[in-house]
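RETRY 2/3 - previous attempt timed out on the joint model. Re-submitting the same 411-residue input unchanged.
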Amino acid sequence: MSHFQGIEVPVEVVRAAQAGDARAHETIYRTCRRPIYTLIRRLVVRNAIADELFQETFVEVLRNISAYSGEGAFGGWVRSIAVSKCLMYLRSPWHRSLLYLDQDDESTAPVVLLDPATYPDAQAAASADVERALASLPALTRSVVWLHDVEGYTHGEIARLLGRTASFSKSQLARAHARLRELLEQPAGSSPCTHVSSTC
Amino acid sequence: MHARIEHLLSLRDGDPVAAELVAHVRSCPICTGELQRLSAVRAEMQALPDFDPPELAWERIQQTIPRRAATLPPRRIGFAAAAAALVTIAVIALIARHSDRHGGEHSVQTPKVLKDPASSNVSHLDELVAQSQQLEQILQKLPERPRIERVSTAATIDTIEQRIQWLDFQLTSISDGDLSEEQSRRLWRERVELMDSLVKVRYAEAGSLWF
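RETRY 2/3 succeeded.
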């Protein structure tokens, strides 16, 4: 399940951080850093960009910590900032201009279990390893499957984050699993093991 | 006809699905297997290990976060305490007098707490440190920043605070022996100038609320 569910930051630490206490800031950082960084790395594969988003996330968390009202889990609040940063990046013209995009949308054909031979991007199938297969997915598709299956977001929540519809999120999830199946069922070594998706 | 993957995902996630679909999946080993596979992939994703964040990330984040009242390096803090108290009283008196004079007016004047912080006359290191400390005290006396303000004002304050942080980083991370007196003086003079600018901008910002 989501790594954020285990995050427990005492109320007094949050209050101290809201009052500007530097030690409380560091405590929050130490508590949240791994789940935040993991989440960002799952959504944005490139290390350098993930590092930058990680830093931006924490700067925003600590700068705006007074905006945390205490309603809902603190970890969830932090996570929402990280997710927002990542999706903003993935949707940005900068990202689009550099990398080939996930062209999927609701107008595409219905999802079927694909024959790898008909799928031109088969070189993305690096190994039967889940992690590598996940990293091989297009950025948007990977984001949807991670947010839904691991972070526990609903399709409605994902749709709001992406500015799309719930059916779009569902179709992306189905597409992700179809692709994962392809990748995971390919025998190890059938494609170059050095390849990692360049989608983000 | 086997179940489509989106229907199996709905079934896996407990979303409502047609009764016929449920019946088919129960009776079809291929669809049952596919449903189990989808659950297994989800479980494997959830079990993936965490990534370790980059080293020194916290140091970089710390440098970026503006501190409301930037603290001085521990050295020499006690030196200016008495002077700071006097200046604080002077500022309060100045504000009170200003308030009395201008009543409901909206005009705001910047405080003239220090004659000229960038003056070349102020060349002694201890004096610069003391001036910086005085300005810190004044800054702390100003009210909290408004929730809504002009973007240009916020950007100016942010820029000044970041530059002060950078100076503080240099002053604290470089040991005394590594800085010549002239280098220290230059850094502290710049700090005083920036603090003075910050106080003035913050004062103007607060003035729009007070008067």
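Chain B touches chain A through 29 residues (CB under 8 Å). Closing ticket.
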